[in-house]
Request: fold
Amino acid sequence: MPLPIILKAKLMASAMAGWTAAAAPVPMPAEAVATLVVGSAAGPVAVDLYDENDHQRGLVAIWRDGSTDEATTDELKTLFRCRRTHREAKIAQGTLAMLADVAEHYPGKTIEYVSAYRANRQESATSPHRHATAVDFRIRGVQLRTIRDYLWRNYTGIGVGWYPEGQYIHIDSRPKLHDTSWTFLKGRNKYTPYWAELARRAVIPTDTIAARHRPGS
Reply:
């Protein structure tokens, strides 16, 4: 589905400005560069999505707090719908904020998702997928460990699961619950794995509170 006209125009203008700056034979004035940077930071993030199961593709505009306009919200419902029941639900804003952050952190990359909203009978009543707060994804060419550690280090009020056998990362926003990390290996979840401790230990102690934020904050 196409992007809403206004947001699509903003994204295209931002991209063209970036290409122009890169191709310019003469360095751009500092004021012009600063204007481009500020404009980019103030606008939404272009998030390129690909559904590995239903082979859907979408380029959507998500603001850094995870908010979207009405048309994009509807598009995301379709993209992230339950692939077994085809039921749709609005994905949690905090989860979308993390996806926008990941897309901005790895520019030009496609977020290939394997699961989002799940409404089938077999899904646990406590599953974040059933409550439309979770997305399982990978980014081709980027190590899962890198994405995993980046999110775990920079956010609180989240769940981050590493699935090395399935080759994807699970993320969910859970603002009313404690942070949860796990590795799924050989059919079992191993909670509070060592990688989670190392990832947050890597943050400079005096900056720990300032560096981490809740999805959408």
Remarks:
- The first helix runs from residue 5 to 23.
- The CA atoms of residues 15 and 40 lie 9 Å apart.
- Residues 15-25, 32-39 have pLDDT under 50 and may be disordered.
- The longest strand covers residues 45-51.
